[in-house]
TrEMBL record:
Signal peptide start and end residues: none
Biological source species: Microbacterium gawkjiense
Database matches in SUPFAM superfamilies: Winged helix' DNA-binding domain
PANTHER family for the chain: DUF2256 DOMAIN-CONTAINING PROTEIN, GSL3115 PROTEIN
Gene3D superfamilies recorded: Winged helix-like DNA-binding domain superfamily/Winged helix DNA-binding domain (1.10.10.10)
Coiled coil: none
Protein name per the record: DUF2256 and DUF3253 domain-containing protein
InterPro entries tied to this protein: DUF3253, UCP037205, WH-like_DNA-bd_sf, WH_DNA-bd_sf
Length: 124
């Protein structure tokens, strides 16, 4: 019996994609966790949020953290609240790339399942 392939991250939202039997023949081509993520893809604002998170972290001490709202405010101005979920998605993509960690109360958490306020910090 063949082993189950390792999970991978969604290209849009950064959440973990678990292998499913229906993807057996094309697992290597699976990039998105859902139809919504496939339709959304990566927009220019998503790329800007990702760059902004990295820039905010680069401007701080090595162990410092940022809130996704800081990136949302920097990119969205007065309409920043609409960018909160895109900022969280950007943080999850950075986790998948191995660049940052997502924390809650100072502890690293699984970005796919984290609920509530989060902080982002560089990988130590």
């Amino acid at each position: 019996m063949a082993s189950t392939p390792a999970p991978k991250s969604c290209a849009s939202c950064g959440r973990e994609i678990q292998w499913r039997k229906k993807w057996e023949k094309n697992w290597d081509e699976v990039k998105y966790c859902s139809d919504a993520c496939r339709k959304r893809g990566i927009r220019p604002v998503d790329e800007k949020l990702t760059r902004t998170i990295v820039e905010l972290l680069d401007a701080r001490a090595a162990a410092a953290t940022v809130c996704p709202s800081e990136a949302a405010r920097a990119v969205g101005g007065d309409d920043w609240r609409d960018l909160m979920e895109p900022a969280r998605r950007a943080a999850r993509r950075l986790v998948a790339a191995g660049e940052v960690e997502i924390t809650q109360r100072g502890q690293v958490v699984d970005p796919s399942t984290a609920k509530g306020p989060i902080r982002i910090r560089k990988v130590r």
